[in-house]
Amino acid sequence: MIQLATRVKQVTPSITLAISAKAKGMKAQGIDVCSFSSGEPDFDTPQHIKDAAALALAQGKTKYGPVAGEPPLRQAIAHKLNNDNKLNYTADNIIVTNGGKHSLFNLMLALIETGDEVIIPAPYWLSYPEMVKLAEGTPVIVETTAETDYKITPEQLRQAITKKTKLFVLNSPSNPTGTVYSAEEIKELAQIIVAHDLLVVSDEIYEKILYDGAEHISIGSLGEEIFKRTIISNGFAKSYSMTGWRIGYLAAPIALIKATSTIQSHSTSNVCTFAQYGAVAALERDESLGCLQEMVNAFTQRRQVILERIRAIPKLSCPTPMGAFYVFVDISRTGMNSLDFCDALLENQKVAAIPGKAFGADNCIRLSYATDLTSIEKGMDRIEKFVNTLK
Length: 391
Ligand code: PLP
Known about the structure:
Layout: H1 6-9, H2 15-28, E1 34-35, H3 47-58, H4 71-85, E2 94-97, H5 100-111, E3 117-122, H6 127-134, E4 138-143, H7 154-160, E5 165-171, H8 183-195, E6 199-203, H9 224-228, E7 230-235, E8 248-251, H10 254-265, H11 273-284, H12 287-311, E9 326-330, H13 338-349, E10 351-352, E11 354-355, E12 364-368, H14 373-389
Parallel strand pairs: 1-10, 3-4, 3-5, 5-6, 6-7
Antiparallel strand pairs: 2-8, 7-8, 9-12, 11-12
Helix pairs in contact: 3-11, 4-11, 5-6, 5-10, 12-14
The structure holds pyridoxal-5'-phosphate.
């Protein structure tokens, strides 16, 4: 008999993957499924990024490299953080990882131990609490509502802090809600973090996908004291359509980067060497800005369509997302929980959506608009039909 470690028994398997697997299985049987479940841009990686990686491959960048990343990439990331985010980092403050997910996992292993509490506002990206548990820490979930645009208030943060609190997780723009914190809101949270001498990890993976003039403020840019307590997690997946490349990074005080490098040196070692040169091109070549703008323009149009369609269905509601490519829809007026709703929606109308339960909000579902307009219209016709047939 295999006796699994307690560590893994405490972890919740991904609900997202279960729904996606069911939807994929139905598609494979030839069923016309409309999917709102995707967590990745439906655009290809821009050509200049692919070319740079192909060139590096042709030039023989095929060997083991430094664990913390290729020097030109660490340099380019430090430059980007200084320029875009007003964060005073050098290449030594950076570790390149196998995606943003791996960044956060490395961080939890380096920082969290038994009994440490990590404050996570809900709705949250589903991996945060599980990573904390894998590091044997305790996730402290703080529920937020649509009334505050799913933002944690300063009072809620203050009340969640105990002697055991070590880290606060901030994700703006957020997956699953699309919420973007304003400069003033971030400043208030920063003051509390400094006053209680906590650390904050700012997951900025959607920083470039913003709407209606929303601005991304990096919490570490708000002063020396908060900067010392900030860890940035970011990656290339969403802004540059590079989900499959698996490249992310952490930026943090050097001692922490050294600790995560030690962990990485005994787990994955360096990220695929030639792929890292594609990431350098993503940051250094002007073409990236054009590609990003094109993608954000498409998302802007789709967001408008999907919001209009949701708001035309009396039993559904959602705040206006200001970033990322998701809408988080309140389904409580249907009287169903999110798992039953998504199961029935897939079964009856062949539409895949992610139950809010996966993100700590069982009264909602997440719809991703990283899909073409025709599919959005068709999928929304089906959702409308489904909701209207409910009593
Ligand atoms: N953080 C958030 C909020 C995300 O939504 C994701 C991916 O969906 C990640 C981090 C990890 O991204 P990746 O590991 O693909 O870089």
